[in-house]
Design goal:
Belongs to the ribonucleoside diphosphate reductase class-2 family. The chain is an alpha/beta fold. The protein has 3 domains: 8-158 and 365-560, no CATH class; 161-204 and 211-356, Anaerobic Ribonucleotide-triphosphate Reductase Large Chain (Alpha-Beta Barrel), CATH 3.20.70.20; 714-862, no CATH class. The strands form 8 sheets. Strands 3, 4, 5, 6, 7, 10, 11, 14, 17 and 18 form a 10-stranded mixed β-sheet that branches. A 3-stranded antiparallel β-sheet has the order 19-20-21. β17 (668-671), α21 (677-690) and β18 form a beta-alpha-beta unit. It is globular, with a radius of gyration of 29 Å.
Length: 964
């Protein structure tokens, strides 16, 4: 059971606590004596109304919430909807940022006093004010569970990252299912290594064959799919790892590849296989990230082309030898095909392990940034790096080293205090976390900082600056951990692990010494980091350390948006244009504020900067921008667009940061759709050579399912499949039995001409019908006459038209051509078909809406915007006979009862100055650059999500696919 809040056993009041120590002296950083941070800012009321753009429904509404006037609309919306506690409309509901921050900060301060962290009440007050100031001004943020739970009557879970364990027994496997389910229930994620479970090639004690870990993954996957969401917080996340020497490793590698093939086959047969679709749940292994844990022996065998042994889980004997290079190739082929498995480098991970005497590092959390002992957890916090950049507006920049170090000390102190009062989902995790006190300080906005300082993300200067900041952050964290050990005691497992912990600290310090200094920005940071590591070695030898782990780089999904960060975690900027929501409604597109800063740093004059920014606003990139030197183009390279950062550019940045991170880095290396299996092999192999601990890859468009698909009932799907197959069979039989007769259209025929845009590509479609109202021909106009595309469209139109005139039913074309996926794809300007996977997909959805009867297209899952709204209101797509009366009655009564809401309703799309169909920066980039970001749509608000580390984040409402 989880311990209660009242007893002294809740904390780790180790040797020192109150009686044997003086406590910490807390230094002021931002605050003024006698003045509360709240009194130094201007506050204003805001109305938070969040809608689903697909149907206009209101997802969340709370009016009159109080926030500082400098907070962005997006940050206000996300913090209010995600983090305020209490039911909306009740007196218990929080109504402003002051209440939220007080709930957390006062809990931390009280616990710090109770457990002897502060030298005096005055130090406790400074701590409270400094912590409140830093949260108020978005200088840093705790991970989401802190905002959800701290200071509330519910269990005060502060950790976002969990690692479980499972042994080779049915009791342990069933415990795994239960423990994982409890973590999912709370909206968090967990990971574990299944390599202790004997393989399917080994025998049970009874003499029969074992099931193997892959079979047990099915049960856990089904459980995760059932317990998919932690209330209204976020979807759960899950990691499954298998060692490369496990005899079932090939089955593990191929699990998702086989399921992806199944998805394609079922989709082609008419089943709803989109994300969130009715039938996707029949596919297995879709709720977890899979990773293979490789060791140096295996990677050296890959390098030399040698053999590698797969070992028995029971005896340790080699039971099969495989070609290492062929196995590595299978991993790369699987990742190329479906983005799984990722890779983790076991020897590198355990080389940096501070507590090897307590056990090896076997697993990780779902996003791979937390790596430590089994049955432990880690609470995270991330700093907003742009808050520490000093810029005089004339190109003179510096990083505020002293203030950064002081904030790190403040945050580490707070994070350690939280373990004293925190609750945990299982007794084992609670005991181990209190014994080792793992922390995960990190940062966000690195991409924005690099661009603002004139550094290309993929450059020696950019990597030097990133490495220097990371080294200073972790060095300062361990320095404060050693100071805390003098005050409240070292972590319980330190005595057993003192020698290896000190060895790892020396490894960090040695890497800091070897690092190359590049320019006037990173050199002072490296100097401060060197001093910090010297203090770490000295103080650690004297006091020990309070924490077994200090730092990770998390995805910073929701919290990154809450801090109004332009970039998440260690990611580069998405693009040079942003989608900005405005107070009072509406939106606009802006060029990143980091661009002018970068241009000033590079020496451009204000007139030149104005011209370059205007060019970016129009074209979305810097190519051919007036006056911009070509050698400076790389500074403005982004994750998407005309000049996107290469895959190895991402890997090199990870390698530049990893030596000063206690854990690992949440990062997915994106590859273009044209990437080869050899490209995946190169990423996985070079990352090992460079000392990265773990990564995953994602090749654009390698996944089948995408959300935003009208749902189909089981009987409707069966009917569509049977009808489509019967139609095709009948058509074939007719060809064999007799020659069909072509029914030509009369000279004068009714028609509809539709202009459309799909993924930024414009076109026109003319559909002409017979007088008896049956579609007879289609003409498509794309691009200029004489171009290849125009010619192909003409030929396609003629082929379809002739088929229609020879009697091929329109529904046959619709069933075959909808869901066909290729570029251009993405947003359309058609309210009835908001997303299209290709031009062909859009054309036949539009034709179905215009020419097929409701019953036929409804069975195909194609509905108009009006019908989808009706389904949300009534549960049915069909129009009822008295619907007009009900609507009229509603219209007569609603305005008088809800007059204020009518005034504050979202403005019509035509009144929004930003592009009509863009709802986030990701969608804006798609429209400007004519490309498609291969990311899911948010289940809450329907907008295109964007990648954050190994997960996805919705810029519109803050929902994530499993990250905090």
């Amino acid at each position: 059971m989880t311990e209660t809040a009242s007893g002294p056993a809740r904390g780790s009041r180790t040797k020192g606590a109150k009686s044997a120590s003086k406590g910490l002296r807390i230094e002021r950083i931002h605050t003024t004596p006698g003045v509360h941070p709240y009194d130094e800012v201007a506050w204003e009321p805001r109305d938070v109304v969040m809608t689903n753009w697909r149907d206009g429904s209101i997802n969340f509404e709370q009016r009159g919430v109080e926030f500082p006037d400098f907070w962005s609309v997006n940050a206000v919306n996300i913090v209010t909807s995600k983090y305020f506690r209490g039911a909306v409309g009740t007196p218990q509901r929080e109504t402003g940022l002051k209440q939220l921050i007080d709930r957390i900060v006062k809990t931390y301060t009280k616990a710090g006093e109770e457990y002897g962290y502060f030298a005096s009440p005055a130090d406790a007050e400074i701590f409270e004010h400094e912590l409140a100031y830093a949260l108020l001004h978005q200088i840093f943020s705790f991970n989401s569970p802190v905002w959800f739970n701290v200071g509330t009557p519910q269990p005060q879970q502060v950790s976002a990252c969990f690692i479980l364990s499972v042994d080779d027994s049915m009791e342990s496997i069933l415990d795994w299912y239960k423990e994982e389910g409890m973590i999912f229930k709370g909206g968090s994620g967990a990971g574990l290594n299944l390599s202790r479970i004997r393989s399917s090639k080994e025998l049970l004690s009874s003499g029969g064959n074992a099931s193997g870990p892959v079979s047990f993954m099915r049960g856990a996957d089904a459980s995760a799919g059932t317990i998919k969401s932690g209330g209204a917080t976020r979807r759960a996340a899950k990691m499954v790892i298998l060692d490369v020497d496990h005899p079932d490793i090939e089955d593990f590698i191929e699990t998702k590849v086989k399921e992806e093939e199944k998805i394609r086959a079922l989709r082609d047969a008419g089943f709803d296989m989109d994300l969130g679709g009715d039938d996707i749940t029949s596919v297995q292994y879709q709720n977890a990230n899979n990773s293979v844990r490789v060791n140096d022996t295996f990677m050296k065998a890959v390098e030399s082309g040698g053999k590698f042994g797969l070992t028995s889980r029971m005896t340790g004997e080699v039971i099969e030898e495989v070609d290492a290079k062929a196995l590595f190739r299978k991993m790369a082929e699987a990742a190329w095909a479906c983005a799984d498995p990722g890779i983790q480098y076991d020897d590198t991970i355990n080389h940096w392990h501070t507590c090897p005497e307590s056990g090896r590092i076997n697993g990780s959390n779902p996003c791979s940034e937390y790596m430590h002992l089994d049955n432990t957890s880690c609470n995270l916090a991330s700093l907003n790096l742009m808050k520490f950049l000093k810029d005089d507006g004339k190109g003179n920049q510096s990083f505020d080293v002293e203030r950064f170090a002081k904030v790190v000390e403040l945050v580490i102190t707070a994070m350690d205090i939280s373990i004293c009062f925190a609750d945990f989902p299982t007794q084992k995790i609670g005991e181990n976390t209190r014994a080792y006190r793992q922390l995960g300080i990190g940062y966000a906005n690195l991409g924005a900082l690099l661009m603002a300082t004139g550094h290309a993300y993929d450059s020696d200067g950019g990597r030097a600056l990133a490495g220097a900041i990371t080294s200073l952050m972790t060095g300062t964290s361990y320095k404060r951990s050693a100071e805390l050990a003098a005050v409240v005691g070292a972590y319980d497992g330190y005595a057993l692990n003192a020698e290896p912990h000190q060895r790892v600290m020396q490894q960090h310090a040695d890497e800091n010494t070897k690092a190359v200094r590049m320019d006037d920005l990173d050199s002072p940071i490296w100097a401060a980091a060197t001093e910090a590591w010297q203090d770490v070695i000295r103080l650690g030898a004297k006091n020990g350390f309070r924490n077994a782990q200090a730092s990770v780089i998390a995805p910073t999904g929701t919290i990154g948006l809450a801090m109004s960060c332009d970039t998440t975690g260690l990611e580069p900027d998405l693009a040079l244009v942003k989608f900005k929501k405005l107070v009072g409604g509406g939106s606009m597109q802006i060029v990143n504020g980091t661009v002018p800063q970068a241009l000033r740093r590079l020496g451009y004059q204000e007139e030149q900067i104005e011209a370059i920014v205007a060019h970016i606003a129009e074209h979305g990139n810097v190519i051919d921008a007036p006056g911009l030197k070509t050698e400076h183009y790389e500074v403005f390279d982004c994750a998407m667009g005309e000049r996107s950062i290469s895959a190895m550019g991402h890997v090199r940045m990870m390698a530049a940061i990893q030596p000063w991170i206690s854990g690992a880095l949440s990062k997915t290396v994106n590859l273009p759709e044209t990437a080869t299996v050899e490209d995946v092999e190169e990423v996985y192999f070079e990352a090992w050579k460079m000392g990265v601990k773990a990564l995953a890859i994602y090749r654009d468009n390698c996944k089948v399912g995408q959300p935003l698909s009208a749902k189909k009932k089981e009987d409707e799907k069966a009917e569509v499949t049977a009808k489509s197959e019967a139609t095709i069979r009948e058509a074939v039989e007719k060809v064999v039995e007799y020659r069909p007769v072509r029914k030509r259209l009369p000279k004068g025929r009714p028609g509809i001409t539709t202009s459309f845009t799909v993924g930024g590509a414009e076109g026109y479609m003319t559909a002409n019908s017979y007088p008896d109202d049956g579609l007879g021909e289609v003409f498509l106009k794309m691009s200029k006459q004489g171009s290849t595309l125009a010619g192909m469209m003409d030929a396609f139109s003629i082929a379809v038209s002739v088929g229609l005139q020879y009697g091929v039913p329109l529904e046959t074309y619709v069933s075959k051509f909808t869901n066909m996926r290729f570029e251009p794809a993405g947003m359309t300007d058609d309210p009835d078909v908001r997303m299209a996977q290709s031009i062909v997909d859009y054309i036949f959805r539009r034709l179905a809406l215009d020419f097929l009867p409701f019953e036929t297209r409804s069975a195909l899952g194609i509905h108009s915007a009006e019908e989808r709204q009706r389904h949300l209101d009534t549960g049915s797509y069909e129009q009822v006979e008295d619907e007009d009366v009900d609507v009229e009655a509603l219209a007569q009564s609603a305005p008088r009862a809800q007059e204020p809401k009518a005034v504050a309703a979202p403005a019509p799309k035509a009144e929004v100055p930003a592009p009509k169909q863009a709802h986030t920066s990701a969608e804006l980039v798609e429209m400007q650059l004519g490309i498609s970001a291969d990311a899911p749509l948010c289940f809450s608000c329907g907008t295109k999500m964007q990648r954050a580390g190994s997960c996805y984040i919705c810029e519109g409402c803050g929902s994530t696919s499993g990250c905090s």
